Amino acid sequence: MSAVANRKPFDAGRAAYLALNLLLLAFLLVPIAIILVFALNPTPYISFPPVGVSLRWFVKFFEGDDFMRALWLSLWIAACVLVLSIVIGGACALALARGNLPGRAFLTAFFMSPLMLPAILTGLALFQAYLLAGIGRPVWGLIMAHTLVAVPYVLRTTLAVLHNFDRRIEEAAAVLGASPARVFFEVTLPLIRPGVFAGGVFAFIVSFDQFPVSLFLVVPKGETLPVVLFNYMKFDLDGAIAAASMVSILLALAVVVVLERLIGLKAYVKL
Amino acid sequence: MISRRRALQAGAGLAAAATFGAPAILHAETRTLKITTWGGKWGAIMKDTILPMFEKEHSCQVSADQAFPFLPKLQASPKNDPLYDVFHSNSNEQWSAVEQGLVMDKITVKEVPNVADVYPWAVSDKIVGVAIFTSAIGLGYRTDKGIAAPKSWKDLADPKLAGARGGYLIPVNSLGQCHLMMLGKVYGKGLQDLDAAYKALEQLKPIKLVDFTGQMEKMLLSGEVIEGVIHDSGVYRYEGANRQPVDFCSPSEGVMALEQVLNVTPGSKVKELAFAYIDFMLRPEVQKLLAEGVWYSPANKKVKLDAKYDAKLLTTPEKVATLIQPDWKWYNARKDDIDARVTKILKG
């Protein structure tokens, strides 16, 4: 057979599909590339084209007490929110999917409602509620506020998994003598884990990047990274902002990679 | 009779109570002053030098909030237990605050003795509270782009600057609001001639708009803006080692005042400490430190700045006379209408 005969005919549809995918990838990745360029450009202002390569803004970011305090606080809060969201969101999803609760649709909408309200209003309302209750603005209040807006993500992804859940597997375990607790931990939980952890990833990122809810709830010397960056930008719009953004992106990526190692990317992708 | 063991146990108990209780007692005695303050270089000087000085002198703690927005947070907190004891903001926000009863209307010599030494602009009828510094709002420009140094506010309308002139999103930036009023004065009958201001604003298109002064600084530095509205501090701070091809012009029609104002909240539980803080901020040595650190013109007449600062900042009655203070009460009363109109003009 000749080489010409082996050559596949030009597939316009496939080419268009590939082009569209490349365009989408570019749309998602170009902003990150631009941030990287700004972070490495040594000029004391954000400009294009870059005049060189320097790590001075990363040094400024890592040497800045305010930046570091905010970074660790944001990470700590996001870790707490991740755990709380998984527990609360997972439990809510199970109750909604399995509980035969009256007004199930209403309850689902109720738990999803923090996503419908502008986050700035959620922050302002909680700020006033905390002050009226006389509890001030403690860190746990900020964690609860972030959890409030993060739970719907876990709820939604877990409900998606539970929707296609084959309950006969649980019944088989029960028939074979497993206690309800054992059925939950050894059958149900492993099967819904992808949904729960996928929601957890969202919860972590939503908390780590949370700005509007945090705006009213942070205290002096207890500001989260997005709030510190916003205030920094008002006075010093330099490459440290871009360096901080790169660090945030890499940290979010690290969390996704760690979770992928824990639960496996394939399970995650099944969603 | 008390046994030796019992006495020892009681003694140990008292010692433990004293040990663990002492910090709590100390904490209860340490007053906390809650203030708002700026970030950037100002914030660094405050945090590293000025606030520790004040804390040491008054045996107190200062909780300094640098996270905007200050006014909405103050509004949302109870009036009898406000979030801040001292509210630092620009003058426009002080006027909004006083109309809602969130701050005092005047700070006098009786409460703050150093008020006796301030320039009249710092306690004028255009000021709520007391101004501790001011910047001059004028025109910043590039010295390396082949344009003549501006002399008048009208120079910003030069057609050669189309697309390379800079202004602000007027609804959210007080420099933009000052510029609008100045357009009324330059092209019309006065600061309150809004029709003339709107017409002049139309002529400034195309214009690059920013939210914050920090952004305007960087746009000037990067050359994206060749000439723009900015305060002197935002240009002069690039003196010396950071020298950049930018300069500041005080237009012949006058410069607008961008005052840094301090005020006390009526519901403050530590009002005496709050007044002491304002008095401290008006001290000549504190004023000098901040004025030379961030290039702000001090309010205290007795401040002696080093020659290079003295040459450029508003430190004499003659130079102070070029300062125009906007009537924020008048402006705030019309703000919604003005916002709608300027947004319509500039959205294209």
Please give a structural write-up:
The complex is a heterodimer of chains A (271) and B (348). Chain A has helices at 3-6, 12-40, 56-63, 65-98, 104-112, 119-133, 139-163, 167-175, 180-208, 212-215, 225-235, 239-263, 265-270. With 271 residues, chain A is mainly α. Chain A has 2 domains: 11-54; 58-270, MetI-like fold (Orthogonal Bundle). Chain B contains 13 helices and 11 strands. In chain B, strands 3, 4, 5, 6, 7, 8, 9, 10 and 11 form a 9-stranded mixed sheet that branches. In chain B, strands 1-2 form a two-stranded parallel sheet. In chain B, strand 1, helix 2 and strand 2 (60-65) form a beta-alpha-beta unit. The radius of gyration of chain B is 24 Å and the shape is globular.
Summed over residues and divided by their number, the pLDDT of chain A gives a mean of 89
Helix and strand content put the structural class of chain A at mainly alpha
Percent of residues in beta strands of chain A: under 5%
Low-confidence stretches of chain A: none
Strand segment count of chain A: 0
